[in-house]
Amino acid sequence: MNTHTEPLHTIDGATLMSLPLQPPNFVVDTLLSQGLHILAGSPKVGKSWLALWLAVTVAKGQPVWNLSARQGTTLYLCLEDSQLRIQNRLFEITEDAPPSVHFCTDSLVLGQGLEEQLEIFLSEHKDAVLVIIDTLQMIRGTSYDNTYANDYRDLSVLKKIADTHGVAILLIHHLRKEKADDVFNQISGTTAISGAVDSSFTLVEERRGSGRARLSCIGRDIEYRELDLQRNDENVWELVSDSIESPIKPEDRIVELLSELMDSRAEFTGTPTELSEKIDPDGTIGITPKKAARLILQSVAALGEAGIIPIIRRSNGKRLIQLRRVDSAIRPGSQNLDPFGTVRPTEAAVCAFPAEAEK
Protein backbone atom coordinates (compact mmCIF):
# COMPACT_ATOMS: atom_id res chain seq x y z
CA MET A 1 0.00 0.00 0.00
CA ASN A 2 1.28 3.44 -0.92
CA THR A 3 1.61 5.38 2.35
CA HIS A 4 1.56 8.67 0.41
CA THR A 5 -1.86 8.05 -1.15
CA GLU A 6 -4.22 10.95 -0.54
CA PRO A 7 -7.10 9.79 1.69
CA LEU A 8 -10.71 10.09 0.64
CA HIS A 9 -12.32 13.31 1.82
CA THR A 10 -15.84 12.38 2.87
CA ILE A 11 -18.85 14.08 4.40
CA ASP A 12 -21.47 12.20 6.38
CA GLY A 13 -25.12 12.27 5.37
CA ALA A 14 -26.38 14.17 8.42
CA THR A 15 -23.89 16.98 7.88
CA LEU A 16 -24.53 17.15 4.14
CA MET A 17 -28.28 17.43 4.66
CA SER A 18 -27.72 20.40 6.98
CA LEU A 19 -25.20 22.18 4.77
CA PRO A 20 -26.28 25.32 2.90
CA LEU A 21 -25.19 25.11 -0.74
CA GLN A 22 -25.45 27.65 -3.49
CA PRO A 23 -27.97 26.81 -6.23
CA PRO A 24 -26.62 26.77 -9.80
CA ASN A 25 -25.66 30.16 -11.19
CA PHE A 26 -27.65 30.78 -14.34
CA VAL A 27 -26.28 32.67 -17.31
CA VAL A 28 -29.76 32.63 -18.85
CA ASP A 29 -32.37 32.38 -16.12
CA THR A 30 -33.96 28.89 -15.76
CA LEU A 31 -32.39 27.80 -19.07
CA LEU A 32 -28.58 27.92 -19.21
CA SER A 33 -26.58 27.47 -16.01
CA GLN A 34 -22.86 27.37 -15.40
CA GLY A 35 -21.42 24.06 -16.55
CA LEU A 36 -21.13 22.18 -19.82
CA HIS A 37 -23.95 22.10 -22.38
CA ILE A 38 -24.52 20.93 -25.92
CA LEU A 39 -26.66 22.40 -28.69
CA ALA A 40 -27.22 19.94 -31.53
CA GLY A 41 -29.02 20.39 -34.81
CA SER A 42 -29.00 19.36 -38.44
CA PRO A 43 -26.56 21.06 -40.83
CA LYS A 44 -27.63 24.57 -41.92
CA VAL A 45 -30.54 24.65 -39.48
CA GLY A 46 -29.31 27.91 -37.96
CA LYS A 47 -27.28 26.77 -34.94
CA SER A 48 -24.46 29.23 -35.62
CA TRP A 49 -26.87 32.13 -36.02
CA LEU A 50 -28.39 31.22 -32.66
CA ALA A 51 -24.95 30.88 -31.06
CA LEU A 52 -23.81 34.27 -32.37
CA TRP A 53 -26.98 36.02 -31.18
CA LEU A 54 -26.65 34.36 -27.77
CA ALA A 55 -23.02 35.46 -27.38
CA VAL A 56 -23.88 39.08 -28.22
CA THR A 57 -27.10 39.19 -26.19
CA VAL A 58 -25.48 37.83 -23.02
CA ALA A 59 -22.52 40.18 -23.41
CA LYS A 60 -25.00 43.07 -23.49
CA GLY A 61 -26.94 41.67 -20.53
CA GLN A 62 -30.17 41.75 -22.52
CA PRO A 63 -32.99 39.23 -22.03
CA VAL A 64 -32.88 35.98 -23.96
CA TRP A 65 -36.46 35.19 -24.99
CA ASN A 66 -37.90 37.07 -22.01
CA LEU A 67 -35.44 35.35 -19.67
CA SER A 68 -32.98 37.57 -17.84
CA ALA A 69 -29.30 37.08 -18.66
CA ARG A 70 -26.27 37.61 -16.45
CA GLN A 71 -24.11 40.17 -18.20
CA GLY A 72 -20.45 39.40 -18.63
CA THR A 73 -17.69 38.68 -21.11
CA THR A 74 -18.48 36.04 -23.72
CA LEU A 75 -16.19 34.09 -26.03
CA TYR A 76 -17.33 32.60 -29.32
CA LEU A 77 -14.96 30.11 -30.96
CA CYS A 78 -16.44 30.25 -34.48
CA LEU A 79 -14.05 27.72 -35.92
CA GLU A 80 -15.94 27.05 -39.17
CA ASP A 81 -16.18 30.74 -40.08
CA SER A 82 -14.00 33.63 -41.16
CA GLN A 83 -13.87 37.10 -39.60
CA LEU A 84 -15.60 38.45 -42.72
CA ARG A 85 -18.55 36.07 -42.30
CA ILE A 86 -18.86 36.87 -38.60
CA GLN A 87 -18.72 40.60 -39.36
CA ASN A 88 -21.46 40.26 -41.97
CA ARG A 89 -23.63 38.30 -39.57
CA LEU A 90 -23.06 40.79 -36.76
CA PHE A 91 -24.36 43.59 -38.97
CA GLU A 92 -27.52 41.54 -39.52
CA ILE A 93 -28.35 40.68 -35.92
CA THR A 94 -27.28 43.83 -34.05
CA GLU A 95 -26.61 47.52 -34.48
CA ASP A 96 -23.74 47.47 -32.01
CA ALA A 97 -21.58 44.60 -30.74
CA PRO A 98 -20.05 45.34 -27.31
CA PRO A 99 -16.31 44.98 -26.65
CA SER A 100 -17.15 42.30 -24.07
CA VAL A 101 -17.96 39.73 -26.77
CA HIS A 102 -14.86 38.10 -28.23
CA PHE A 103 -14.46 36.03 -31.40
CA CYS A 104 -11.85 33.49 -32.41
CA THR A 105 -11.76 31.71 -35.78
CA ASP A 106 -8.73 29.52 -35.05
CA SER A 107 -7.68 27.59 -31.96
CA LEU A 108 -5.73 24.57 -30.91
CA VAL A 109 -7.51 21.25 -30.32
CA LEU A 110 -8.19 19.30 -27.14
CA GLY A 111 -5.10 17.61 -25.78
CA GLN A 112 -2.83 19.90 -27.80
CA GLY A 113 -3.26 23.25 -26.11
CA LEU A 114 -6.94 24.25 -26.26
CA GLU A 115 -7.39 23.67 -22.54
CA GLU A 116 -4.53 26.05 -21.77
CA GLN A 117 -5.87 28.63 -24.22
CA LEU A 118 -9.27 28.60 -22.51
CA GLU A 119 -7.67 28.80 -19.07
CA ILE A 120 -5.63 31.84 -20.12
CA PHE A 121 -8.64 33.64 -21.56
CA LEU A 122 -10.81 32.94 -18.51
CA SER A 123 -8.03 33.97 -16.15
CA GLU A 124 -7.63 37.25 -18.03
CA HIS A 125 -11.39 37.88 -18.12
CA LYS A 126 -12.64 37.27 -14.59
CA ASP A 127 -16.12 38.48 -15.55
CA ALA A 128 -16.54 35.83 -18.27
CA VAL A 129 -19.87 33.99 -18.14
CA LEU A 130 -20.21 32.15 -21.46
CA VAL A 131 -17.95 30.29 -23.89
CA ILE A 132 -19.42 28.91 -27.13
CA ILE A 133 -17.45 26.38 -29.17
CA ASP A 134 -18.66 25.97 -32.75
CA THR A 135 -18.23 23.08 -33.37
CA LEU A 136 -17.28 20.21 -31.06
CA GLN A 137 -15.81 18.32 -33.99
CA MET A 138 -13.44 21.20 -34.82
CA ILE A 139 -11.66 20.98 -31.46
CA ARG A 140 -11.12 17.23 -31.58
CA GLY A 141 -8.61 16.99 -34.39
CA THR A 142 -8.50 14.77 -37.46
CA SER A 143 -7.30 11.68 -35.60
CA TYR A 144 -10.32 11.63 -33.27
CA ASP A 145 -11.58 8.13 -32.46
CA ASN A 146 -15.33 8.02 -31.83
CA THR A 147 -15.53 5.85 -28.72
CA TYR A 148 -17.43 6.21 -25.44
CA ALA A 149 -14.20 6.64 -23.48
CA ASN A 150 -12.92 9.38 -25.77
CA ASP A 151 -16.24 11.25 -25.77
CA TYR A 152 -16.42 11.18 -21.98
CA ARG A 153 -12.75 12.12 -21.56
CA ASP A 154 -12.95 15.14 -23.87
CA LEU A 155 -16.17 16.49 -22.41
CA SER A 156 -14.98 15.91 -18.85
CA VAL A 157 -12.00 18.17 -19.55
CA LEU A 158 -14.28 20.96 -20.73
CA LYS A 159 -16.71 20.48 -17.86
CA LYS A 160 -13.88 20.81 -15.35
CA ILE A 161 -12.88 24.13 -16.92
CA ALA A 162 -16.49 25.37 -16.83
CA ASP A 163 -16.95 24.37 -13.19
CA THR A 164 -13.58 25.76 -12.09
CA HIS A 165 -14.26 29.19 -13.58
CA GLY A 166 -18.00 29.27 -12.96
CA VAL A 167 -18.92 29.77 -16.62
CA ALA A 168 -21.21 28.08 -19.08
CA ILE A 169 -19.55 26.30 -22.01
CA LEU A 170 -21.91 25.60 -24.89
CA LEU A 171 -20.79 23.09 -27.54
CA ILE A 172 -22.36 23.30 -30.98
CA HIS A 173 -22.81 19.81 -32.42
CA HIS A 174 -24.73 17.81 -35.03
CA LEU A 175 -27.72 15.49 -35.06
CA ARG A 176 -27.63 12.15 -36.81
CA LYS A 177 -29.81 11.77 -39.90
CA GLU A 178 -31.48 8.70 -38.44
CA LYS A 179 -34.77 9.51 -36.71
CA ALA A 180 -35.43 8.45 -33.13
CA ASP A 181 -38.42 8.49 -30.83
CA ASP A 182 -36.44 10.70 -28.46
CA VAL A 183 -34.80 13.61 -30.26
CA PHE A 184 -31.93 13.63 -27.76
CA ASN A 185 -30.98 10.15 -28.99
CA GLN A 186 -30.20 11.75 -32.35
CA ILE A 187 -27.24 13.67 -30.96
CA SER A 188 -24.21 12.50 -32.91
CA GLY A 189 -21.65 10.42 -31.02
CA THR A 190 -21.91 7.97 -28.16
CA THR A 191 -24.21 8.24 -25.16
CA ALA A 192 -21.23 9.60 -23.22
CA ILE A 193 -21.89 13.01 -24.77
CA SER A 194 -25.36 13.31 -23.29
CA GLY A 195 -24.14 11.77 -20.03
CA ALA A 196 -21.20 14.14 -19.56
CA VAL A 197 -23.00 17.44 -20.18
CA ASP A 198 -25.23 19.27 -17.73
CA SER A 199 -27.84 20.14 -20.36
CA SER A 200 -28.71 19.10 -23.90
CA PHE A 201 -30.50 21.28 -26.43
CA THR A 202 -31.70 20.17 -29.85
CA LEU A 203 -32.77 22.56 -32.61
CA VAL A 204 -35.03 20.81 -35.12
CA GLU A 205 -36.63 22.62 -38.03
CA GLU A 206 -40.35 22.17 -38.65
CA ARG A 207 -39.43 21.49 -42.26
CA ARG A 208 -36.35 22.36 -44.27
CA GLY A 209 -36.30 26.07 -45.08
CA SER A 210 -39.43 26.89 -43.07
CA GLY A 211 -37.63 29.23 -40.68
CA ARG A 212 -39.52 27.64 -37.78
CA ALA A 213 -37.88 25.24 -35.34
CA ARG A 214 -38.32 23.67 -31.94
CA LEU A 215 -35.63 23.95 -29.30
CA SER A 216 -35.99 21.01 -26.91
CA CYS A 217 -34.18 21.40 -23.59
CA ILE A 218 -33.31 18.86 -20.92
CA GLY A 219 -30.75 18.97 -18.12
CA ARG A 220 -29.77 18.39 -14.53
CA ASP A 221 -30.56 21.91 -13.34
CA ILE A 222 -33.46 22.84 -15.62
CA GLU A 223 -37.00 21.65 -16.23
CA TYR A 224 -37.74 19.91 -19.50
CA ARG A 225 -39.15 22.48 -21.89
CA GLU A 226 -39.81 23.08 -25.57
CA LEU A 227 -39.38 26.50 -27.16
CA ASP A 228 -40.97 27.12 -30.55
CA LEU A 229 -38.82 29.59 -32.48
CA GLN A 230 -39.09 31.52 -35.71
CA ARG A 231 -36.18 33.08 -37.58
CA ASN A 232 -36.89 36.67 -38.59
CA ASP A 233 -35.53 38.67 -41.54
CA GLU A 234 -32.39 39.53 -39.53
CA ASN A 235 -31.72 35.81 -38.88
CA VAL A 236 -32.53 36.15 -35.19
CA TRP A 237 -34.45 33.28 -33.64
CA GLU A 238 -37.50 34.82 -31.96
CA LEU A 239 -39.67 33.08 -29.38
CA VAL A 240 -43.11 31.98 -30.55
CA SER A 241 -44.13 29.88 -27.56
CA ASP A 242 -42.66 28.27 -24.44
CA SER A 243 -43.99 25.05 -22.93
CA ILE A 244 -43.28 26.58 -19.51
CA GLU A 245 -45.54 29.61 -19.45
CA SER A 246 -44.14 31.32 -16.35
CA PRO A 247 -40.94 29.64 -15.21
CA ILE A 248 -40.31 30.33 -11.53
CA LYS A 249 -37.03 29.47 -9.91
CA PRO A 250 -37.49 27.10 -6.94
CA GLU A 251 -35.67 29.49 -4.61
CA ASP A 252 -38.06 32.28 -5.59
CA ARG A 253 -41.06 30.07 -4.80
CA ILE A 254 -39.79 29.01 -1.37
CA VAL A 255 -38.89 32.61 -0.46
CA GLU A 256 -42.37 33.74 -1.45
CA LEU A 257 -44.05 31.00 0.58
CA LEU A 258 -41.90 31.48 3.68
CA SER A 259 -42.31 35.25 3.53
CA GLU A 260 -46.08 34.77 3.61
CA LEU A 261 -45.72 32.35 6.52
CA MET A 262 -43.54 34.75 8.51
CA ASP A 263 -45.68 37.81 7.86
CA SER A 264 -47.73 37.15 10.98
CA ARG A 265 -45.09 35.58 13.21
CA ALA A 266 -41.60 36.26 14.50
CA GLU A 267 -40.47 32.63 14.62
CA PHE A 268 -41.35 29.17 13.36
CA THR A 269 -39.88 25.88 14.54
CA GLY A 270 -41.06 22.54 13.24
CA THR A 271 -40.19 19.43 11.28
CA PRO A 272 -40.01 19.53 7.48
CA THR A 273 -43.39 17.78 7.45
CA GLU A 274 -44.96 20.41 9.68
CA LEU A 275 -43.51 23.21 7.56
CA SER A 276 -44.72 21.57 4.36
CA GLU A 277 -48.23 21.34 5.79
CA LYS A 278 -48.12 25.04 6.65
CA ILE A 279 -46.97 26.37 3.27
CA ASP A 280 -48.53 23.76 0.97
CA PRO A 281 -51.45 22.23 2.91
CA ASP A 282 -53.23 20.67 -0.06
CA GLY A 283 -50.08 19.62 -1.93
CA THR A 284 -50.93 21.57 -5.08
CA ILE A 285 -47.60 23.39 -5.17
CA GLY A 286 -45.56 20.23 -4.67
CA ILE A 287 -43.45 21.39 -1.71
CA THR A 288 -42.91 18.03 -0.05
CA PRO A 289 -41.03 17.77 3.28
CA LYS A 290 -37.87 16.65 1.49
CA LYS A 291 -38.17 19.42 -1.07
CA ALA A 292 -38.85 22.06 1.59
CA ALA A 293 -35.61 21.33 3.44
CA ARG A 294 -33.59 21.19 0.22
CA LEU A 295 -34.98 24.44 -1.14
CA ILE A 296 -34.25 26.21 2.14
CA LEU A 297 -30.67 24.97 2.14
CA GLN A 298 -30.23 26.20 -1.43
CA SER A 299 -31.95 29.56 -0.83
CA VAL A 300 -30.08 30.90 2.20
CA ALA A 301 -28.97 34.04 0.35
CA ALA A 302 -32.43 34.81 -1.03
CA LEU A 303 -34.06 34.20 2.35
CA GLY A 304 -31.52 36.48 4.00
CA GLU A 305 -32.40 39.25 1.57
CA ALA A 306 -36.05 38.74 2.53
CA GLY A 307 -35.15 39.15 6.21
CA ILE A 308 -35.51 35.51 7.22
CA ILE A 309 -32.76 33.59 9.05
CA PRO A 310 -33.10 29.80 8.62
CA ILE A 311 -31.48 27.19 10.85
CA ILE A 312 -31.72 23.45 10.27
CA ARG A 313 -30.75 21.30 13.25
CA ARG A 314 -31.49 17.99 14.93
CA SER A 315 -33.22 17.60 18.29
CA ASN A 316 -34.13 14.27 19.91
CA GLY A 317 -33.43 12.49 16.66
CA LYS A 318 -35.70 14.78 14.60
CA ARG A 319 -34.68 17.26 11.95
CA LEU A 320 -36.05 20.69 12.77
CA ILE A 321 -36.35 23.81 10.64
CA GLN A 322 -36.19 27.07 12.54
CA LEU A 323 -37.09 30.37 10.89
CA ARG A 324 -36.69 33.79 12.47
CA ARG A 325 -37.29 37.23 11.10
CA VAL A 326 -34.20 39.42 11.28
CA ASP A 327 -36.03 42.42 12.78
CA SER A 328 -37.39 40.27 15.62
CA ALA A 329 -34.11 38.50 16.28
CA ILE A 330 -31.82 41.37 17.23
CA ARG A 331 -30.46 41.23 20.74
CA PRO A 332 -31.19 44.36 22.81
CA GLY A 333 -28.30 46.78 22.57
CA SER A 334 -26.56 44.76 19.84
CA GLN A 335 -27.55 46.04 16.43
CA ASN A 336 -24.91 44.03 14.58
CA LEU A 337 -25.78 40.51 15.70
CA ASP A 338 -28.41 38.03 14.67
CA PRO A 339 -30.00 35.78 17.34
CA PHE A 340 -27.12 33.33 17.08
CA GLY A 341 -24.44 36.03 17.31
CA THR A 342 -22.90 35.13 13.98
CA VAL A 343 -23.77 37.73 11.34
CA ARG A 344 -25.09 41.21 10.82
CA PRO A 345 -28.69 41.35 9.55
CA THR A 346 -27.45 42.53 6.17
CA GLU A 347 -25.22 39.48 6.01
CA ALA A 348 -27.96 36.97 6.76
CA ALA A 349 -27.57 35.66 3.24
CA VAL A 350 -24.34 33.93 4.24
CA CYS A 351 -25.54 32.60 7.58
CA ALA A 352 -24.25 29.08 8.21
CA PHE A 353 -26.11 26.17 9.68
CA PRO A 354 -24.22 24.97 12.79
CA ALA A 355 -24.19 21.19 12.55
CA GLU A 356 -24.23 20.85 16.31
CA ALA A 357 -26.33 23.91 17.19
CA GLU A 358 -28.86 23.70 20.00
CA LYS A 359 -28.88 19.95 20.40
Order of helices and strands: HEEEHEHEHEHEHEEEEHEHHHEE
How many angstroms separate the termini? 41 Å
Based on helices, strands and strand pairing, what is the structural class? alpha/beta
Estimated share of beta-strand residues = 15-25%
Number of strands: 14
Strand order of the largest sheet: 5-4-6-7-3-8-9-10-11
Query: What share of the residues lie within helices?
Result: 25-40%
Low-confidence stretches: 328-359
Rg, alpha carbons:
24 Å
Can you walk me through this structure?
The chain is built from 10 helices and 14 strands. It has 359 residues and is an alpha/beta fold. A hairpin with a 2-residue loop joins strand 13 (308-315) and strand 14 (318-325). The chain starts with 12 loop residues before the first helix and ends in a 34-residue tail after the last strand. 31% of the residues are buried.
Protein traits:
nine-stranded mixed beta sheet, 359 residues, three-stranded antiparallel beta sheet, alpha/beta, 28% helix
Short recap of the structure:
This protein is an alpha/beta fold and 359 residues long.
Write the layout of secondary structure elements.
Blueprint: H1 13-16, E1 26-28, E2 32-33, E3 35-41, H2 47-60, E4 73-78, H3 83-93, E5 101-104, H4 114-124, E6 128-134, H5 148-165, E7 168-174, H6 191-196, E8 199-205, E9 212-219, E10 225-231, E11 237-242, H7 250-262, E12 267-270, H8 272-279, H9 289-297, H10 300-305, E13 308-315, E14 318-325
Parallel strand pairs: 3-7, 3-8, 4-5, 4-6, 6-7
Antiparallel strand pairs: 1-2, 8-9, 9-10, 10-11, 12-14, 13-14
